[in-house]
Amino acid sequence: MNLKLKxxxxxxxxxxxxxxxxxxxxxxxxxxxxxxxxxxxxxxxDKGIEPIAFDHDCRExxxxxxxxxxNGEAHGPDRRVTTCQLHMRKFKDGDTIYIEPFRANAFxxxxxxxxxxxAFDRIQHAGGYISVNTSGNTxxxxxxxxxxDNADLAFDAATCIGCGAxxxxxxxxxxxxxxxxxxxxxxxxxxxxVEAKDRxxxxxxxxxxxxxxxxxxxxxxxxxxxxxxxLDNISRMNREFLSANIxxx
Amino acid sequence: MSKSTFYTSVxxxxxxxxxxxxxxxxxxxxxxxxxxSVISAEAFNEASHFMGTNPLVQFLLQPVLMFAVVFHFVxxxxxxxxxxxxxxxxxxxxxxxxxxxxxxRNMIISGITVxxxxxxxxxxxWIPEINTKYIVGDMSGLMADGSFRYFHxxxxxxxxxxxxxxxxxxxGFLSLHLLHGFKSSFQSVGLxxxxxxVTLHKFGNVFAIAVPLGFVFIALFHFLxxxx
Lengths: 249, 228
Description:
The complex is a heterodimer of chains A (about 250) and B (about 230).
Chain A (H helix, E strand, L loop, with lengths): L2 E7 L8 E7 L8 H14 L22 E2 L2 E2 L21 E5 L8 E3 L2 E2 L2 H8 L22 H11 L6 H5 L6 H12 L8 H14 L10 H5 L7 H17 L1
Parallel strand pairs in A: 1-5
Antiparallel strand pairs in A: 1-2, 3-4, 3-5, 6-7
Helix pairs in contact in A: 2-6, 3-5, 5-6, 5-8, 6-8
Chain B lengths: L8 H31 L1 H13 L1 H31 L16 H4 L1 H29 L14 H8 L3 H28 L5 H31 L4
Helix pairs in contact in B: 1-2, 1-3, 1-7, 1-8, 3-5, 5-7, 7-8
C-alpha cells in the first residue's frame, strides 16, 4: 500500500518543531508500524535527510519504550497493543497517517517523536517499591498466603509497562492510571502493607510535582492502555489516599 | 516519612466528588417537592412552607448547599485551567471520541450552562424569597387573601414560554453533566469496582435522565395547564 505520512519533526528540546509530510510506497500489510518507520528512515538516509528519531527497544510489547500518537490515538487504532505490535494491515492504501509524540508538559520532547518520560521513574522512586531486608533471613514470599483474587488483581496492575499512553490519551495529561497501577500492585499484597500510607501519599505528591494534570474520569486512559489496566485501580488509589489521610493525621 | 496532605490532585478530586454527590442529593429532594405541585397545590404549599421556615433547613442545610454550589463551580474552573496547563502544545490530530464520551470531556461546557441557569433560578425564586423573608420580614408565607403564595409563585414563573424553553435547555445540559458526573463521583471517592461499577453506571444513567426529565415535566405541566 502507498501512504501519506504527516510526522512531527523537532531538532531538539529547544526547537519549535512542525509537522512534515512524507510519502512511502509499497508498504506491506504484514509490517509492524515501527518497521514501516524503519523503511522510511532508510529512504531518508539514502536521500541524505536526517532520519526520524523514535523510541523502541524490545519490539514485543513488554518494555514500554515505544510510544507515538497515531491518528489521534496512543499506540494507534488497534486495542491492547503497543505501537511495535501494531500492524500496517490496520491501515488502507492511500491513507494519511498523523504521527506525533506523546504530548504532556511532564513529557518534554527530546527530538522528533522521542519524549522524556523520566517523570514516571521519579514517581516510582517516591514510593513504588517495598523495602526488603536482604540480610539472609528474608522470608520466602511463597510462605505468605495470599487470596487468589488479590494475587490476580495485583498481577494485572503489575502488567503496566509505564509507556505513558494513559497520559498521552488523557485530555488533562493525567498520570493517575499509571500511579494507581503502581500503588495497587502493592496495596493488594501483604508485603505492601507496611509502607502503604507513605507510598500513596508520596507518589501522589510526586505526580503533582511533576506537572501532570488531574483525573476527570473520562476513561480514555483505560481504553488506550496497551495492557488494559483497569480504572478500578484509580478507584483503589483514591481509597488508599483517603484512608492514609484519615489514619495518618 | 511522608507529610499527610489532602491538598493534592486526588484530594481535590475527592472534594469535587463529595460536593457533587451532595448536590445530586439536593436535586432529588428538590424534584420530590416540586413533583407535589403536579399532584396537589396544597401539599406543595405545605412542603414549601416547611422548607422555607424550618430553622434547620434555613440555617444549616441552606448555607451548606450554598457552600457546595460555590465550591463545586469554583473548583471546577480552577481544575479545568490547571488541566489545560498540563499540555501547552496540543496534538495536530485529535480523535477523542474513540475512547471517551462527549459528556466526560465537556463537563465545563455543561457546567457553565447549569451555572447560567442557576443565575436565572436565583433571580426567579431565591432572591425574591430571601427578600420577602429576611428583608421585608414576612415569614408567614401567605398572600393578601390569606392563602399560601408558593404554588401561585411557581405557576407565575411558568407562564412565559421563553422561560420554559430556557428551563428545558438547561435541564438538557444538566442531564449531560450528570451522565458523567454521577458515575464519576462514585469513582472519585473510590466506591466503584468491577461489577459494582457496571450497576452504578446503569443507575447513574437512569438518575441523570429521570431527574432532569422530572423538572422539565413540571415546567411543561404548569405551562400547558395555564391559560395564556
